[in-house]
Amino acid sequence: MSEAAAPGKDGVLRTDVVIIGAGPVGLFAAFEAGVVGLSCHIVDALEQVGGQCIELYPDKPIFDIPAIPVCTARQLIDRLTEQCKPFAPPIHLGHRVMQLERVESTQRWRVSTDGGLVFDTASVLLSAGNGAFVPQRVGLPEAQTLEGRHVHYAVRKRAMFADQRVVVAGGGDSALDWALALRGQAKHVTLVHRRNAFRAADATVQELKRAVADGQIDLVIGALATLNAPHDVLRSIEVKTLEASVTIEADHLIALYGLVADLGPIAQWGLDVRAGRVAVDTSYYETSLPGVFAVGDIAIYPNKQKLILSGFHEASLALRKAYAYAFPDKKRVHVHSSYDAGLSERILGTPAAQESAHS
Ligand SMILES: Cc1cc2nc3c(=O)[nH]c(=O)nc-3n(C[C@H](O)[C@H](O)[C@H](O)COP(=O)(O)OP(=O)(O)OC[C@H]3O[C@@H](n4cnc5c(N)ncnc54)[C@H](O)[C@@H]3O)c2cc1C
């Protein structure tokens, strides 16, 4: 490995590979980067690793991972995280990669995130699935200017809702959990949901019903219609119910409608994008840009299967070519992992078995 994890004096992080996306494929890629002898940084827009496995089906069993007859998606992500630990890849969560620029003078890539991180890297491995998971936003034009002050898509600082009139919108676990959590702290909590049925754990739904019956939370079944915000200060929210229009006095709207995947900035990077996915050459899963690889669900090629297994294979091959971009003057000799002294010491703390290396 060539470079350190800390930024240089210019604030730029130098590395061999930037892995965009910490889903199952990105995590395995971080391990493979270590095996191949490359330093890497992983970046994900979400606050936790795991991609679709954690966001969409954490407790669903998976049956088609080699040598693991059955595990839940969460267990798989835990194991992948454990597997890459010996290489301690820096993982930057809550950062969406926005820009990818070629630096012609160095033949390297500059990668920038919305959180201000800048990387200088020999290669980029896109394991970005269907794009970044972003919150589904309120479809009212006035919501955009109020975002961050009066309209929120996550609860980051709970204290900001103390003694405030809060409307929570949504019918899933997050919406119900936050409506319940804020009831003692906020001045008033109203939960607005389209239907009188919820997509949340039974116990949470029962607790909500009790809170509504006890008058701790108001429940309004209907759709958000207007945000009344004179001078850009939220005062009230109109909700269309089946029978009429209801006005709810409110200082804050917390909309928790779930996450949607959005390719977003990746579509602007000059890649060959087809139907929302990135076309690759299957020799090394390299895109139309030299040193930029696409693996996992984001990659498209004939007969591509959107499976975790396929992504593992693609990442493994891509990183072998990435080595040539990081070390153009070196030839990498293939050694089976059991006979790789460096790998054995990192993982087991002991030297490798004394067998001949395969090359
Ligand atoms: C319900 C369901 C069940 C499934 N069951 C199975 C199964 O049993 N077996 C199987 O093999 N497969 C299964 N799959 C498919 C499997 O989940 C995917 O193939 C796998 O998640 C792809 O992994 P990935 O790492 O490529 O992408 P993802 O898991 O989608 O992760 C991509 C990550 O990239 C991040 N990202 C994207 N753009 C950016 C950006 N610009 N900046 C920063 N971060 C970004 C995203 O936030 C996300 O975390 C299932 C899928 C679903 C929906």
Automatic annotation (TrEMBL):
Single GO MF annotation: flavin adenine dinucleotide binding
Keyword tags: FAD, Flavoprotein, NADP, Oxidoreductase
Residues at which FAD binds: 44, 52, 57, 97, 133, 297, 338
All copies of domain FAD/NAD(P)-binding, residue ranges: 16-304
Cofactor binding mode and count: Binds 1 FAD per subunit.
N-terminal signal peptide: none
One Pfam family in the UniProt entry: Pyr_redox_2
Reactions it catalyzes: 2 reduced [2Fe-2S]-[ferredoxin] + NADP(+) + H(+) = 2 oxidized [2Fe-2S]-[ferredoxin] + NADPH
Cofactor(s) the protein requires to work: FAD
Gene3D superfamilies, A to Z: FAD/NAD(P)-binding domain
EC numbers on record: 1.18.1.2
Family listed: Belongs to the ferredoxin--NADP reductase type 2 family.
Subunit structure: Homodimer.
Entries under HAMAP family matching the protein: FENR2 (MF_01685)
The protein, known as: Ferredoxin--NADP reductase
Organism taxonomic ancestry: Bacteria, Pseudomonadati, Pseudomonadota, Betaproteobacteria, Burkholderiales
